[in-house]
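Reopening this one. Same input as before:
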Amino acid sequence: MNAEEHEIARKIVRVLDQGTREMDGSTVMQLAAARERALAGLRESPVSVPAWAGQLVSRITQRPAAGLRYVLPMAILMLGLIGIVYWQAGNGSGNELADLDARLLTDDLPIDAYLDKGFDSWLKRQSR
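Same output, byte for byte:
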């Protein structure tokens, strides 16, 4: 935290302290009792179980159809991705692009020669 954030924190603490000094006795007693109940509940809860685990289990067991709401779109997405990968592998376009890149990088000709429309026909005429 920088100095400006510390100053803001000090101002907030002053305002909160002033607010607690202006509270009447019954409100302070109610707040103290609520704090004690909260701390007692905290001491009773098991430490080794994450807090969200109980909520997750209750959501799954109460509404089993809700799980389908998430699982079905994920299954469709995964099947779509698998289909795209299978289709690309069947086309062989990935290997062709890799071969073309390798030939361009290892060849002595500049890339502009391959981009020239007449270069291919010139090569065919020269090879005869």
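So the earlier flakiness isn't reproducible anymore. For the record, The mean pLDDT is 77.
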